[in-house]
Write a structure and sequence with these properties.
The protein has strands at residues 11-17, 20-28, 38-41, 56-57, 65-71, 74-75, 81-84, 86-87, 92-96, 109-117, 120-126. By secondary structure, it is an all-beta fold. The strands form 4 sheets. The chain has a 4-stranded antiparallel beta sheet with strand order 2-10-5-6, with no helix packed on it. A 3-stranded antiparallel beta sheet has the order 3-9-7, with no helix packed on it. A two-stranded antiparallel ribbon has the order 1-11.
Length: 127
Amino acid sequence: MALQLMKLALDATVTTTLNPSTTKYFYVTTEVTPAGETLTIDPTDFFDDAGVSVSELPELATDNSYYRVYINGVLQMQGITTYTPGETAVGSLTVSVPEGNESILLNTPIVLEVITYTPNTEAEINS
């Protein structure tokens, strides 16, 4: 008898759900940040949806989370921000205002949005 590849023949139903979780952090600038300068926001400078001060910025899970930054309600390009998770003195959000741009003005709202997905896959083998 000739050699054969032996394999299972199965009928299965696979269901994957992503389960997104969004957390928003808010900050209102306390001074002007001119073009060419960098604004650094510590975790304790942010407050959450309930108005409570934040103690640390969460880790971004590899391949299933990301962050977005809005300044005065406008989504910003990823290249001008740097996100570092952790507590104050470790964690922060920095916004580098490019040369030739307008300043970030006093009392400007900045929103940091962290989106994390918790995927779940279930497989059912049909007989």
